[in-house]
Amino acid sequence: MYKNIYLKKGKDESLKRFHPWVFSGAIQRMDDGIEEGEVVRVINANGDFIAVGHYQKGTITVRVLSFEDIAIDDAFWEKSILSALNMRIRIGIADNPNNNTYRLIHGEGDYLPGLVIDCYGKTAVIQAHSVGMHYSRNEVCKALLKVMGGRIENVFYKSETTIPQKKDLHQEDGFLYGHTDDNVAVENGLKFHIDWLKRKAYTFSTPLTDEQVCDNSFVDLALDIAKAAKPMNDFLNYTFEEYGEFKRDER
């Protein structure tokens, strides 16, 4: 099974509230030989299991993948991706004839810290924002193709700049599966040309008139987007509070 990381007394409170990060200042000790990107178990001061996740050197030492004592295997990746897909289907952005562009996996929001997957038509773009997710990219790709079925035919890996402080990872951009030159995707009936290599991938292919932009439905859509961003803002505010406590503990 996985090696363990042991927390200081009282440093499991945020994890009890299912916060997905373990800060370095919360750690009492670690088992010997833990490598960066490795899956580890997190144990509280009473010796009880509390989480399993990816270990990484730095302020955020563990990114939690599960609060259950389970194996991070093919079944885990498939279940996690399927859960995210089903939620996108329920809210109408996946399996929608007028929309084949959406974020399938959004890191902590889908209980997969360090992983982002965007779907553009038949192509999925994977980004790793942690060493553990970089090492797991092939397992993620395999599970993605199985869960998505015919929805996805190509998987592009784009992590050359997402973990730049780790120069020895050789995280080169390129296709993990398939290949395509078709970069047209549809979002809410609008066509876009996608450039996988650029940070800002969208380029409008369908022009909008002033009347469309000023239409009430467009304003409603903008308001919905702002509302959707609120949970992430709340999460970030909470994280900053936790980080402030961690910095005070260090002093």
List the helices and strands and how they pair.
Blueprint: E1 3-7, H1 13-16, E2 21-23, E3 27-30, E4 39-43, E5 49-55, E6 60-66, H2 74-90, E7 101-106, E8 115-120, E9 123-128, H3 131-135, H4 137-148, E10 154-157, E11 174-177, E12 184-187, E13 190-194, E14 202-204, H5 210-214, H6 216-250
Parallel strand pairs: 1-4, 9-10
Antiparallel strand pairs: 1-3, 2-6, 4-5, 5-6, 7-8, 8-9, 10-11, 12-13, 13-14
Helix pairs in contact: 2-4
Description:
The relative contact order is 0.11. Helices cover 31% and strands 27% of the residues. It folds into three domains: 3-71, Archaeosine Trna-guanine Transglycosylase, Chain: A, domain 4; 74-207, Transcription Regulator spoIIAA; 208-251. A six-stranded mixed β-sheet has the order 2-6-5-4-1-3. The protein has a five-stranded mixed β-sheet with strand order 7-8-9-10-11. A three-stranded antiparallel β-sheet has the order 12-13-14, with no helix packed on it. The protein has 251 residues and is an alpha+beta fold. Helix 2 packs across helix 4 (137-148). It has helices at residues 13-16, 74-90, 131-135, 137-148, 210-214, 216-250, and strands at residues 3-7, 21-23, 27-30, 39-43, 49-55, 60-66, 101-106, 115-120, 123-128, 154-157, 174-177, 184-187, 190-194, 202-204. It contains six helices and 14 strands. The model is unreliable at 199-206 (pLDDT under 50).
